[in-house]
């Protein structure tokens, strides 16, 4: 994501980065130096490496975070605000959080920033995974006031192919969790159906082609077929090397369940799906979420 930002940012802008993983920052620096060697006459690709998130925030009018859990998101924003008021800049700060977290945690970070009057907080989770991040083809869904729509879009489109405003702050993470809740259920259903069909002796490739043009059509059949050999490009045909891991879909399901509980929404299938993902994660941690199919076979 950071390298695509630097490639597409205006020449006059400087990108300031920080990551707790120093090797990731070193890798970024090497990539930028290679870009400079190639076309420095046209673009100097200005950047700095900061020691912490507070340093980034002090110097940035737009700050983008992408973090693995609600607690870490809150810790990072607390670390930004714990050392007093941020210095005033020519433009009002825009904080864009691309993490997938629950709506309650996202609102808490917004409220924390609102109390300091140091800028606007936008939730902007993404879809597209590691491949999309590297290729610059991520899809963002974000929540912000209407008057910030164009500014947020212009920042996000430096890292992706689309950015859609879903409503006010919080609408981005809610939209992401609603989508991923559907995925978590469809992923299990597709694995169950193909495992059942295999035991019936059906041709799984022929069945998958049928489903793609029938009412059972879904992403786990269209793109991420869980049965090895049906789609040569799918993780299942490559040892279930991830795409999106079973760990991540379990985490997103838990976030959706937490958000549903907070709002009083009923999710009758969630508990059983969570039970399945707990068992699959224990057996196949780090594998693609479609490995549910292999887990089912081993239950017989």
TrEMBL record:
Q: Which reaction does it catalyse?
A: 3-hydroxy-2-methylpropanoate + NAD(+) = 2-methyl-3-oxopropanoate + NADH + H(+)
User: What residue stretches are annotated with the 3-hydroxyisobutyrate dehydrogenase-like NAD-binding domain?
Assistant: 170-295
| Source taxon at top rank | Eukaryota
List the EC numbers from the record. 1.1.1.31
- Xref: InterPro entries: 6-PGluconate_DH-like_C_sf (IPR008927), 6PGD_dom2 (IPR013328), 6PGDH_NADP-bd (IPR006115), HIBADH-like_NADP-bd (IPR029154), HIBADH-related (IPR015815), NAD(P)-bd_dom_sf (IPR036291)
Q: Name one GO molecular function term.
A: 3-hydroxyisobutyrate dehydrogenase activity
6-phosphogluconate dehydrogenase NADP-binding domain mapped to chain residues: 10-164
Can you supply a Gene Ontology BP term from the record? L-valine catabolic process
**Name of one Pfam family that matches:** NAD_binding_2
Q: Which SUPFAM superfamilies match?
A: 6-phosphogluconate dehydrogenase C-terminal domain-like, NAD(P)-binding Rossmann-fold domains
Q: In which pathway does it act?
A: Amino-acid degradation; L-valine degradation
| Keyword terms, alphabetized | Branched-chain amino acid catabolism, NAD, Oxidoreductase
For this record, an example GO cellular component is: mitochondrion
Instruction: Tell me yes or no: is NAD among this UniProt entry's keywords.
Output: yes
Q: Which residues form the active site?
A: 176
Give the family from UniProt. Answer: Belongs to the HIBADH-related family. 3-hydroxyisobutyrate dehydrogenase subfamily.
Which protein are we looking at?
3-hydroxyisobutyrate dehydrogenase
């Amino acid at each position: 994501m950071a390298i695509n930002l630097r490639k597409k940012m205006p020449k006059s802008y400087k990108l300031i980065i920080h990551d707790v993983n120093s090797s990731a920052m070193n890798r970024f620096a090497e990539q930028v130096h290679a870009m400079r060697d190639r076309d420095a006459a046209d673009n100097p690709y200005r950047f700095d490496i900061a020691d912490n998130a507070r340093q980034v925030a002090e110097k940035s009018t737009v700050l983008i975070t992408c973090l693995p859990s609600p607690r870490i998101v809150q810790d990072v924003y607390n670390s930004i605000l714990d050392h007093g008021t941020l210095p005033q800049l020519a433009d009002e700060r825009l904080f864009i959080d691309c993490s997938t977290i629950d709506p309650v945690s996202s609102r808490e970070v917004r409220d924390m920033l609102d109390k300091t009057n140091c800028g606007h907080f936008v939730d902007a989770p993404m879809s597209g995974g590691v491949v999309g991040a590297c290729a610059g083809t991520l899809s963002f869904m974000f929540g912000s006031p209407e008057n910030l729509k164009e500014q947020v879009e212009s920042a996000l489109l430096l890292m992706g192919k689309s950015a859609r405003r879903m409503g006010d702050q919080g609408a981005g993470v809610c939209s992401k969790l609603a989508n991923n809740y559907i995925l978590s259920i469809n992923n299990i259903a597709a694995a169950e159906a193909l495992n059942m069909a295999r035991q019936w002796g059906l041709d799984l490739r022929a069945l998958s082609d049928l489903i793609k043009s029938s009412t059972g059509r879904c992403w786990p059949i269209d793109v991420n077929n869980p049965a090895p050999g049906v789609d040569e490009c799918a993780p299942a045909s490559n040892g279930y090397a991830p795409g999106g891991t079973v760990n991540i879909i379990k985490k997103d399901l838990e976030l959706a369940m937490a958000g549903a509980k907070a709002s009083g929404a009923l999710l009758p299938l969630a508990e059983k799906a969570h039970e399945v993902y707990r068992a699959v994660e224990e057996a196949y941690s780090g594998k693609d979420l479609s490995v549910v199919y292999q887990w089912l076979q081993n239950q017989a």
